[in-house]
Predict the 3D structure of the following.
Amino acid sequence: MKLAIVCYPTFGGSGVVATELGIALAQRGHEIHFVTYKQPVRLELLSNNIHFHEVFVPEYPLFHYQPYELALSSKLVDTIKMYDIEVLHVHYAIPHAYAGYMTKKMLKEEGIYIPMITTLHGTDITLVGNHPFYRTAVNFSINKSDMVTAVSESLKNDTLELFDITKEVHVIPNFVDKRKYGHNYTDCQRSLLANDDEKIITHVSNFRKVKRIPDVIEAFYRIQQEVPAKLIMIGEGPEKEHAEFTVEKLGITDRVVFLGNSNEIDRILCFSDIFMLPSEKESFGLSALEAMINKVAVISSNTGGIPEVNRQGVTGFLSDVGDVDDMVKNTLTLLRDEEMLETFKTQAYEVACEFDILKILPMYEDIYRLAYKWR
Ligand code: GMT
C-alpha cells in the first residue's frame, strides 16, 4: 500500500513508534511517506520506498503562534495527490488528527477519499488532550477518524472515560524489533562508565515532570549507599537541570552520568542491570520495553499501561507512584541476588519478545486494509 505517516519527529515514544513502523512497513514492500516538520530522528536512511516530505512553517511576525496545522494539511493534500497515497496514518491526536480531518475534507471536494487512522499514544489523551481548551476539537477529530488505535488497554480505557468516543478503539501495543538487539556489542563501553563490581541502573526519558525524575535520583542515592552502583540518565528535558543540581547537592556526581539524547540507547542498555521508570502516568512505557529486549530488569511505578509490559515478580517490580521506599527495597532485592537478577533479565527479554514487531505489524496492516476497503 501507499501510506502517509504523520508524527512528531523528535525523541519521544510516539515519534519512535511511528518511524520504526514506517521503516518496517517499507521493508515489507509498502511505500511510506513521512510528512512532518523535520526528518524523524530514527529515520537515518531514506530508501526507494521511504520518502520524507518536510512541512515548512514560515515565521511571520504578525502571528504569535505559527499555523502548523494549516501547513501540515496543505502538505498532506499535495503529497496524497502527487503520490496517490491510499491511507493516512496519524500518530498522536494533537494536532495531527485535526489536520488529518481537514485534509480529508479538502480532498473530498476533489472527489478523492482517503481513510485516516489515528493512533493515540498517551499524553494526547491523558495530559494534554482532555484539557478544556483542547477537548472539543480532540474529541471531534478522534470521532472523525476512520479507525482509531490505542497503544494499550489502559489508554483505551482512559480514552473512553475522558472523551465521548463513538468509534471503536482497537488496541495495538507498541513493539520492538528483536532482530536489532544483539547482546554482543563488541564496542560496549561498560568499563568507561562503571567498574566491574558496580551495578548499572539506567533511566531514559524526555525529563518531563510526569517522569518523576526526583524519584529516580532519590532512589539511586539510597541504593548506592548499600550496593556499589552507577546511574546513567539518558535524555533531555525541562527537569534535567534540577536533576543535575540535586546530584551535585547529594555529592554523587562521580556516580551519576547524564548522557543527553542518544540514538543508540541499546548500546547502554545492553550492559545495564536495572531500568528505572517511576512515572506518574505512562500509557505504555516504550522505554521499559526497549530495556527489556536488552535483558534489563525493570523497577517501575504501577500506573497506566506499564503493568501490561513490566510484569510483577517476573520482569521486574512495580510500586505505587511515589513509593520510593518500595522501589529502593525492590532494587536492592534484585541487586543483592545475582541469580534472581539473571532470571529476571532473561524473563524480561522473553516477555519483550511477545511485543516483537513481526507480531504487531500485521495488526496495523489489517487495520489499513479494512480502512481502505470501507472507504
Ligand atoms: O512520554 C512522553 O512524554 C512522550 C510520549 C510521546 O508521545 O512520545 O510518550 C507516550 O507515547 C509512548 C509511545 O506510545 C508511550 O510509550 C508513553 O508511555 C506515552 N507517554 C505517556 O503516556 C506519559
In short: Residues 12-15, 17, 92, 121-123, 151, 174, 206, 208, 210, 281-286 surround GMT (CB under 6 Å). The chain has two domains: 2-175+357-373, 179-353. The radius of gyration is 21 Å. The first strand starts at residue 2 and ends at 6.
